Fold:
Amino acid sequence: MPIHLGIVGVGAFAQCFIPLFKAHPRVSRVTLCDLDPEKLAKNAAQWGIDRTCPSLDKLLETDVDAVAIITQHWLHAPQAIQALKARKHVYSAVPTGVSLQEIRDLERTVRETRKVYMIGETSYYYPAPVYCRKRLAAGDFGRIVFGEAEYYHDMDHGLMEVLAWRCKSLGLDPRKQGGDPPMYYPTHSTSMIISVTGAHMTHVSCQGYVDREPDTLYNPDVNIWKNAFSNEAALFRMSDGSSARINEFRRVGHPGTVRMTLFGTSGSFEENTAGPIWVTKKWGEQQRLDDLLSCAGVAAKDVAASGSEGGMEKITSRDGTHMGAAKIHDLARLPREFLGLPNGHNGSHQFLVDDFVRACDERTLPPNHVWNAARYAIPGIVAHDSALQGGKLLDVEDLGAAPRDFAIK
Ligand SMILES: NC(=O)c1ccc[n+]([C@@H]2O[C@H](COP(=O)([O-])OP(=O)(O)OC[C@H]3O[C@@H](n4cnc5c(N)ncnc54)[C@H](O)[C@@H]3O)[C@@H](O)[C@H]2O)c1
Structure:
Protein backbone atom coordinates (compact mmCIF):
# COMPACT_ATOMS: atom_id res chain seq x y z
CA MET A 1 0.00 0.00 0.00
CA PRO A 2 1.48 3.38 -0.94
CA ILE A 3 2.22 5.51 2.10
CA HIS A 4 1.22 9.02 3.11
CA LEU A 5 4.40 10.75 4.23
CA GLY A 6 4.94 13.92 6.27
CA ILE A 7 8.19 15.85 5.86
CA VAL A 8 9.07 17.61 9.13
CA GLY A 9 11.37 20.57 8.53
CA VAL A 10 11.36 22.11 5.07
CA GLY A 11 14.65 23.95 5.47
CA ALA A 12 17.81 23.71 3.39
CA PHE A 13 18.42 19.95 3.35
CA ALA A 14 14.77 19.03 2.81
CA GLN A 15 14.96 20.70 -0.61
CA CYS A 16 16.88 17.64 -1.81
CA PHE A 17 14.27 15.20 -0.51
CA ILE A 18 10.86 16.76 -1.15
CA PRO A 19 10.98 16.09 -4.93
CA LEU A 20 12.19 12.52 -4.40
CA PHE A 21 9.57 11.56 -1.82
CA LYS A 22 6.93 13.22 -3.99
CA ALA A 23 8.04 11.28 -7.09
CA HIS A 24 8.33 7.88 -5.42
CA PRO A 25 5.66 5.57 -6.84
CA ARG A 26 4.96 4.03 -3.43
CA VAL A 27 4.21 7.42 -1.84
CA SER A 28 0.58 8.36 -2.38
CA ARG A 29 0.67 11.73 -0.68
CA VAL A 30 3.12 14.17 0.90
CA THR A 31 2.36 16.66 3.67
CA LEU A 32 4.89 19.39 4.39
CA CYS A 33 5.43 20.51 7.97
CA ASP A 34 7.42 23.36 9.50
CA LEU A 35 7.18 25.75 12.43
CA ASP A 36 7.90 28.66 10.10
CA PRO A 37 4.64 29.51 8.23
CA GLU A 38 6.42 31.55 5.56
CA LYS A 39 8.83 28.77 4.74
CA LEU A 40 5.97 26.32 4.69
CA ALA A 41 3.88 28.36 2.25
CA LYS A 42 6.89 28.96 -0.01
CA ASN A 43 7.71 25.26 -0.16
CA ALA A 44 4.09 24.26 -0.74
CA ALA A 45 3.92 26.59 -3.74
CA GLN A 46 7.34 25.64 -5.07
CA TRP A 47 6.73 21.88 -4.94
CA GLY A 48 3.02 21.91 -5.77
CA ILE A 49 1.98 20.27 -2.50
CA ASP A 50 -1.36 21.35 -1.08
CA ARG A 51 -1.26 19.71 2.36
CA THR A 52 0.74 21.51 5.04
CA CYS A 53 0.96 21.32 8.81
CA PRO A 54 2.31 23.90 11.30
CA SER A 55 4.21 21.58 13.68
CA LEU A 56 5.33 18.04 14.35
CA ASP A 57 2.77 17.84 17.19
CA LYS A 58 -0.08 18.62 14.80
CA LEU A 59 1.28 16.37 12.06
CA LEU A 60 1.25 13.39 14.39
CA GLU A 61 -2.51 13.88 14.90
CA THR A 62 -3.12 13.38 11.17
CA ASP A 63 -3.36 10.22 9.08
CA VAL A 64 0.27 10.25 7.86
CA ASP A 65 1.79 6.76 7.93
CA ALA A 66 5.38 7.97 8.15
CA VAL A 67 7.43 11.07 8.87
CA ALA A 68 10.80 12.20 7.53
CA ILE A 69 12.51 14.29 10.23
CA ILE A 70 14.86 16.82 8.62
CA THR A 71 15.05 19.27 11.51
CA GLN A 72 18.01 20.79 13.37
CA HIS A 73 20.64 18.18 14.17
CA TRP A 74 20.26 18.25 17.96
CA LEU A 75 16.49 17.57 17.84
CA HIS A 76 16.29 14.22 16.11
CA ALA A 77 16.06 11.57 18.82
CA PRO A 78 13.27 13.16 20.93
CA GLN A 79 11.27 13.95 17.78
CA ALA A 80 11.75 10.43 16.43
CA ILE A 81 10.59 8.95 19.76
CA GLN A 82 7.53 11.21 19.76
CA ALA A 83 6.62 10.13 16.21
CA LEU A 84 7.16 6.43 16.90
CA LYS A 85 4.92 6.67 19.96
CA ALA A 86 2.26 8.20 17.68
CA ARG A 87 2.62 4.99 15.63
CA LYS A 88 4.34 6.56 12.63
CA HIS A 89 7.30 5.12 10.73
CA VAL A 90 10.32 7.41 11.06
CA TYR A 91 13.09 8.52 8.75
CA SER A 92 15.60 10.71 10.59
CA ALA A 93 18.39 12.88 9.22
CA VAL A 94 21.72 12.34 11.00
CA PRO A 95 22.85 12.27 13.71
CA THR A 96 20.81 9.63 15.53
CA GLY A 97 20.98 11.57 18.80
CA VAL A 98 23.31 13.64 20.91
CA SER A 99 23.22 11.78 24.23
CA LEU A 100 23.51 8.16 25.28
CA GLN A 101 20.21 8.27 27.14
CA GLU A 102 18.19 9.55 24.19
CA ILE A 103 19.66 6.89 21.90
CA ARG A 104 18.86 4.17 24.47
CA ASP A 105 15.31 5.56 24.67
CA LEU A 106 15.03 5.60 20.90
CA GLU A 107 16.11 1.97 20.57
CA ARG A 108 13.66 0.90 23.29
CA THR A 109 10.83 2.82 21.58
CA VAL A 110 11.50 1.11 18.24
CA ARG A 111 11.44 -2.27 20.00
CA GLU A 112 8.16 -1.43 21.74
CA THR A 113 6.34 0.16 18.80
CA ARG A 114 7.76 -2.08 16.04
CA LYS A 115 7.58 0.74 13.55
CA VAL A 116 10.19 1.35 10.84
CA TYR A 117 13.02 3.60 11.98
CA MET A 118 15.76 4.50 9.51
CA ILE A 119 18.71 6.81 9.96
CA GLY A 120 19.34 8.81 6.78
CA GLU A 121 23.06 8.17 6.68
CA THR A 122 24.34 9.43 3.33
CA SER A 123 27.81 7.84 3.69
CA TYR A 124 26.34 4.34 3.63
CA TYR A 125 25.58 4.80 -0.08
CA TYR A 126 28.85 6.50 -1.03
CA PRO A 127 30.69 4.66 -3.81
CA ALA A 128 33.67 3.76 -1.55
CA PRO A 129 31.72 1.73 1.06
CA VAL A 130 29.51 0.24 -1.67
CA TYR A 131 32.69 -0.90 -3.45
CA CYS A 132 34.32 -2.17 -0.25
CA ARG A 133 31.22 -4.16 0.76
CA LYS A 134 31.40 -5.96 -2.58
CA ARG A 135 35.11 -6.71 -2.28
CA LEU A 136 34.78 -7.87 1.32
CA ALA A 137 31.94 -10.22 0.32
CA ALA A 138 34.14 -11.56 -2.49
CA GLY A 139 36.89 -12.28 0.07
CA ASP A 140 39.34 -9.85 -1.51
CA PHE A 141 40.28 -8.05 1.71
CA GLY A 142 41.04 -11.25 3.62
CA ARG A 143 40.64 -10.37 7.28
CA ILE A 144 40.18 -6.70 8.16
CA VAL A 145 43.04 -5.36 10.27
CA PHE A 146 42.57 -1.58 10.34
CA GLY A 147 40.15 1.09 9.11
CA GLU A 148 40.24 4.85 8.87
CA ALA A 149 37.44 7.28 8.17
CA GLU A 150 37.11 11.00 8.51
CA TYR A 151 34.78 13.90 8.05
CA TYR A 152 36.69 17.15 7.54
CA HIS A 153 34.49 20.23 7.27
CA ASP A 154 36.08 23.52 8.23
CA MET A 155 33.77 26.03 9.90
CA ASP A 156 34.83 28.54 7.19
CA HIS A 157 33.29 26.33 4.51
CA GLY A 158 29.69 27.39 5.03
CA LEU A 159 29.20 25.87 8.48
CA MET A 160 28.92 29.26 10.23
CA GLU A 161 26.06 30.15 7.88
CA VAL A 162 24.43 26.73 8.43
CA LEU A 163 24.60 27.24 12.19
CA ALA A 164 23.09 30.72 11.85
CA TRP A 165 20.06 29.56 9.84
CA ARG A 166 19.46 26.48 11.99
CA CYS A 167 19.36 28.71 15.08
CA LYS A 168 17.34 31.49 13.50
CA SER A 169 14.12 29.53 13.00
CA LEU A 170 14.17 28.36 16.64
CA GLY A 171 15.19 31.77 18.03
CA LEU A 172 18.44 30.40 19.45
CA ASP A 173 21.79 32.13 19.87
CA PRO A 174 24.34 30.52 17.47
CA ARG A 175 27.24 31.35 19.80
CA LYS A 176 25.64 29.21 22.49
CA GLN A 177 24.12 26.48 20.31
CA GLY A 178 27.23 26.06 18.13
CA GLY A 179 30.52 24.59 19.23
CA ASP A 180 29.11 21.11 19.77
CA PRO A 181 31.69 18.35 20.13
CA PRO A 182 32.74 17.14 16.66
CA MET A 183 32.37 13.54 17.88
CA TYR A 184 28.64 14.20 18.44
CA TYR A 185 28.33 14.13 14.62
CA PRO A 186 30.45 11.04 13.82
CA THR A 187 28.05 8.98 11.75
CA HIS A 188 29.36 9.94 8.30
CA SER A 189 32.70 8.41 9.30
CA THR A 190 31.79 5.56 11.65
CA SER A 191 29.11 4.21 9.29
CA MET A 192 31.68 3.75 6.54
CA ILE A 193 33.75 1.29 8.57
CA ILE A 194 30.88 -0.39 10.43
CA SER A 195 28.67 -0.87 7.36
CA VAL A 196 31.49 -2.53 5.44
CA THR A 197 33.00 -4.77 8.12
CA GLY A 198 29.86 -5.50 10.14
CA ALA A 199 32.01 -5.06 13.25
CA HIS A 200 31.20 -2.49 15.93
CA MET A 201 33.29 -0.38 18.27
CA THR A 202 34.01 -1.87 21.70
CA HIS A 203 36.60 0.50 23.23
CA VAL A 204 37.87 4.00 22.53
CA SER A 205 40.63 6.43 23.37
CA CYS A 206 40.17 9.91 21.95
CA GLN A 207 42.17 13.14 21.85
CA GLY A 208 40.69 16.60 21.41
CA TYR A 209 42.30 19.67 19.90
CA VAL A 210 41.55 22.74 22.04
CA ASP A 211 40.39 25.43 19.65
CA ARG A 212 42.39 28.66 19.50
CA GLU A 213 40.57 30.64 16.81
CA PRO A 214 39.54 34.17 17.76
CA ASP A 215 35.77 33.62 17.63
CA THR A 216 34.12 32.20 20.74
CA LEU A 217 32.54 29.18 19.04
CA TYR A 218 34.51 26.59 20.98
CA ASN A 219 34.73 28.55 24.21
CA PRO A 220 33.42 26.12 26.86
CA ASP A 221 32.21 29.05 28.96
CA VAL A 222 30.03 30.26 26.08
CA ASN A 223 28.56 27.22 24.28
CA ILE A 224 25.86 25.08 25.93
CA TRP A 225 27.97 21.96 25.35
CA LYS A 226 30.80 23.28 27.57
CA ASN A 227 33.06 22.15 24.75
CA ALA A 228 36.56 23.36 23.85
CA PHE A 229 37.43 20.85 21.12
CA SER A 230 37.06 21.75 17.44
CA ASN A 231 38.84 18.60 16.21
CA GLU A 232 38.71 15.14 17.71
CA ALA A 233 40.69 12.02 16.74
CA ALA A 234 39.70 8.65 18.17
CA LEU A 235 41.23 5.19 18.07
CA PHE A 236 38.73 2.37 18.49
CA ARG A 237 39.05 -1.34 19.21
CA MET A 238 36.58 -3.21 17.00
CA SER A 239 34.55 -6.33 17.75
CA ASP A 240 36.32 -8.26 14.94
CA GLY A 241 39.77 -7.72 16.50
CA SER A 242 40.73 -4.90 14.13
CA SER A 243 41.07 -1.25 15.09
CA ALA A 244 39.76 1.93 13.51
CA ARG A 245 40.76 5.57 13.59
CA ILE A 246 38.03 8.18 13.18
CA ASN A 247 38.74 11.90 12.76
CA GLU A 248 36.07 14.58 13.10
CA PHE A 249 37.65 17.94 12.26
CA ARG A 250 35.88 21.32 12.11
CA ARG A 251 38.97 23.56 11.98
CA VAL A 252 41.27 22.19 9.32
CA GLY A 253 43.16 23.61 6.36
CA HIS A 254 41.62 21.20 3.90
CA PRO A 255 39.00 21.41 1.12
CA GLY A 256 36.81 19.02 3.13
CA THR A 257 36.03 15.34 2.72
CA VAL A 258 34.09 12.32 3.91
CA ARG A 259 36.26 9.32 3.10
CA MET A 260 37.55 5.95 4.21
CA THR A 261 40.54 3.64 3.95
CA LEU A 262 40.41 -0.02 4.89
CA PHE A 263 43.26 -2.50 5.25
CA GLY A 264 42.87 -6.29 5.06
CA THR A 265 45.35 -9.15 5.20
CA SER A 266 45.02 -9.70 1.42
CA GLY A 267 44.01 -6.37 -0.08
CA SER A 268 43.26 -2.77 0.85
CA PHE A 269 41.22 0.18 -0.28
CA GLU A 270 42.82 3.60 0.02
CA GLU A 271 41.17 6.95 -0.53
CA ASN A 272 42.88 10.31 -0.34
CA THR A 273 42.55 13.72 -1.94
CA ALA A 274 43.99 12.30 -5.19
CA GLY A 275 41.26 9.64 -5.44
CA PRO A 276 40.46 6.00 -4.60
CA ILE A 277 42.69 3.01 -5.29
CA TRP A 278 42.75 -0.79 -4.67
CA VAL A 279 46.12 -2.29 -3.69
CA THR A 280 47.49 -5.70 -2.69
CA LYS A 281 50.78 -7.09 -1.38
CA LYS A 282 52.09 -7.54 -4.92
CA TRP A 283 54.30 -4.64 -5.95
CA GLY A 284 52.67 -2.69 -8.73
CA GLU A 285 49.29 -4.40 -8.36
CA GLN A 286 47.17 -1.29 -8.14
CA GLN A 287 43.80 -0.48 -9.59
CA ARG A 288 42.69 3.12 -9.96
CA LEU A 289 38.97 3.38 -9.24
CA ASP A 290 38.14 6.93 -10.34
CA ASP A 291 35.97 5.89 -13.26
CA LEU A 292 33.98 3.30 -11.29
CA LEU A 293 33.46 5.44 -8.19
CA SER A 294 33.13 9.00 -9.47
CA CYS A 295 29.64 10.47 -9.15
CA ALA A 296 29.41 11.98 -12.61
CA GLY A 297 25.93 10.64 -13.42
CA VAL A 298 25.09 7.49 -15.37
CA ALA A 299 22.91 7.13 -18.46
CA ALA A 300 20.02 4.72 -17.97
CA LYS A 301 21.01 1.66 -20.00
CA ASP A 302 17.55 0.31 -20.63
CA VAL A 303 16.28 3.63 -21.98
CA ALA A 304 19.20 3.83 -24.38
CA ALA A 305 18.86 0.19 -25.46
CA SER A 306 15.11 0.26 -26.04
CA GLY A 307 15.35 3.26 -28.33
CA SER A 308 11.96 4.22 -26.98
CA GLU A 309 10.46 7.60 -27.76
CA GLY A 310 12.64 8.03 -30.84
CA GLY A 311 15.96 6.63 -29.59
CA MET A 312 19.13 8.06 -28.12
CA GLU A 313 18.84 11.49 -29.64
CA LYS A 314 15.61 12.09 -27.72
CA ILE A 315 16.99 11.08 -24.33
CA THR A 316 17.16 13.95 -21.88
CA SER A 317 18.42 14.08 -18.32
CA ARG A 318 14.78 13.95 -17.30
CA ASP A 319 14.21 10.47 -18.69
CA GLY A 320 17.64 9.01 -19.26
CA THR A 321 20.18 9.96 -16.59
CA HIS A 322 20.71 8.79 -13.04
CA MET A 323 21.87 12.19 -11.81
CA GLY A 324 24.91 12.29 -9.52
CA ALA A 325 25.33 8.51 -9.41
CA ALA A 326 28.46 6.37 -9.94
CA LYS A 327 28.84 3.23 -12.05
CA ILE A 328 29.25 1.13 -8.88
CA HIS A 329 25.72 2.05 -7.74
CA ASP A 330 22.93 -0.48 -8.23
CA LEU A 331 20.80 1.89 -10.27
CA ALA A 332 18.42 -0.68 -11.69
CA ARG A 333 16.70 -0.99 -8.30
CA LEU A 334 15.68 2.67 -8.19
CA PRO A 335 12.24 3.75 -9.39
CA ARG A 336 12.25 5.00 -12.97
CA GLU A 337 10.48 8.11 -11.70
CA PHE A 338 13.84 9.21 -10.20
CA LEU A 339 15.53 9.47 -13.60
CA GLY A 340 16.60 13.05 -14.19
CA LEU A 341 15.66 14.14 -10.67
CA PRO A 342 18.24 15.77 -8.41
CA ASN A 343 20.52 13.56 -6.36
CA GLY A 344 23.24 14.51 -3.91
CA HIS A 345 25.93 13.52 -1.42
CA ASN A 346 27.62 11.16 -3.86
CA GLY A 347 24.48 9.63 -5.25
CA SER A 348 23.00 8.76 -1.86
CA HIS A 349 19.75 10.75 -1.73
CA GLN A 350 17.73 8.58 -4.09
CA PHE A 351 18.78 5.36 -2.31
CA LEU A 352 17.91 6.86 1.07
CA VAL A 353 14.39 7.70 -0.03
CA ASP A 354 13.88 4.38 -1.81
CA ASP A 355 15.13 2.28 1.12
CA PHE A 356 12.88 4.05 3.58
CA VAL A 357 9.74 3.94 1.45
CA ARG A 358 10.29 0.26 0.58
CA ALA A 359 10.78 -0.59 4.28
CA CYS A 360 7.49 1.12 5.20
CA ASP A 361 5.59 -0.42 2.31
CA GLU A 362 7.01 -3.93 2.71
CA ARG A 363 7.23 -3.84 6.54
CA THR A 364 10.92 -4.76 6.51
CA LEU A 365 13.97 -3.47 8.33
CA PRO A 366 15.89 -0.90 6.28
CA PRO A 367 19.68 -1.37 6.13
CA ASN A 368 20.28 1.51 8.54
CA HIS A 369 17.81 0.51 11.24
CA VAL A 370 17.99 1.76 14.81
CA TRP A 371 20.61 -0.80 15.94
CA ASN A 372 23.01 0.32 13.23
CA ALA A 373 22.07 3.95 13.88
CA ALA A 374 23.05 3.45 17.53
CA ARG A 375 26.32 1.78 16.57
CA TYR A 376 27.16 4.73 14.29
CA ALA A 377 26.43 7.41 16.92
CA ILE A 378 27.23 6.05 20.38
CA PRO A 379 30.98 5.54 19.74
CA GLY A 380 31.33 9.28 19.08
CA ILE A 381 29.55 10.27 22.28
CA VAL A 382 31.81 7.97 24.31
CA ALA A 383 34.86 9.17 22.36
CA HIS A 384 34.16 12.74 23.44
CA ASP A 385 33.93 11.54 27.02
CA SER A 386 37.35 9.92 26.60
CA ALA A 387 38.80 13.15 25.17
CA LEU A 388 37.50 15.03 28.21
CA GLN A 389 39.44 12.53 30.35
CA GLY A 390 42.68 13.03 28.42
CA GLY A 391 42.26 9.95 26.21
CA LYS A 392 41.28 7.43 28.89
CA LEU A 393 40.36 4.03 27.34
CA LEU A 394 36.59 3.64 27.73
CA ASP A 395 34.13 0.85 26.95
CA VAL A 396 31.74 1.68 24.12
CA GLU A 397 28.16 0.79 25.01
CA ASP A 398 26.51 -1.48 22.44
CA LEU A 399 22.74 -1.81 22.10
CA GLY A 400 23.22 -4.98 20.07
CA ALA A 401 22.34 -6.12 16.58
CA ALA A 402 18.81 -6.12 15.19
CA PRO A 403 16.78 -8.93 16.81
CA ARG A 404 16.45 -11.81 14.34
CA ASP A 405 12.70 -12.10 14.80
CA PHE A 406 11.96 -8.36 14.62
CA ALA A 407 8.67 -7.91 12.74
CA ILE A 408 7.47 -4.46 11.70
CA LYS A 409 3.84 -3.62 12.44
N1 LIG B 1 24.98 14.51 4.64
C1 LIG B 1 23.96 14.58 5.47
O1 LIG B 1 23.51 13.56 5.96
C2 LIG B 1 23.37 15.94 5.84
C3 LIG B 1 23.68 17.08 5.11
C4 LIG B 1 23.04 18.27 5.45
C5 LIG B 1 22.13 18.31 6.51
N2 LIG B 1 21.89 17.18 7.21
C6 LIG B 1 20.93 17.19 8.33
O2 LIG B 1 19.71 17.76 7.93
C7 LIG B 1 19.08 18.40 9.02
C8 LIG B 1 18.45 19.71 8.60
O3 LIG B 1 19.44 20.64 8.23
P1 LIG B 1 19.04 22.00 7.51
O4 LIG B 1 20.28 22.72 7.21
O5 LIG B 1 18.06 21.73 6.43
O6 LIG B 1 18.27 22.75 8.70
P2 LIG B 1 17.23 23.95 8.58
O7 LIG B 1 17.37 24.76 9.82
O8 LIG B 1 17.38 24.64 7.27
O9 LIG B 1 15.80 23.22 8.59
C9 LIG B 1 15.25 22.65 9.73
C10 LIG B 1 13.78 23.01 9.78
O10 LIG B 1 13.14 22.19 10.76
C11 LIG B 1 12.05 22.95 11.27
N3 LIG B 1 11.59 22.37 12.54
C12 LIG B 1 12.28 22.20 13.69
N4 LIG B 1 11.50 21.68 14.65
C13 LIG B 1 10.27 21.49 14.08
C14 LIG B 1 9.04 20.98 14.57
N5 LIG B 1 8.90 20.56 15.84
N6 LIG B 1 7.99 20.93 13.73
C15 LIG B 1 8.12 21.36 12.45
N7 LIG B 1 9.25 21.86 11.93
C16 LIG B 1 10.33 21.92 12.75
C17 LIG B 1 12.65 24.35 11.42
O11 LIG B 1 11.66 25.33 11.49
C18 LIG B 1 13.51 24.46 10.17
O12 LIG B 1 12.83 25.10 9.10
C19 LIG B 1 20.14 18.53 10.09
O13 LIG B 1 19.82 17.68 11.14
C20 LIG B 1 21.42 18.04 9.46
O14 LIG B 1 22.20 17.30 10.36
C21 LIG B 1 22.48 15.99 6.89
Notes: Residues 306-313 have pLDDT under 50 and may be disordered. Residues 124-293+368-395 form a domain with the Dihydrodipicolinate Reductase; domain 2 fold (CATH 3.30.360.10). The radius of gyration is 21 Å.
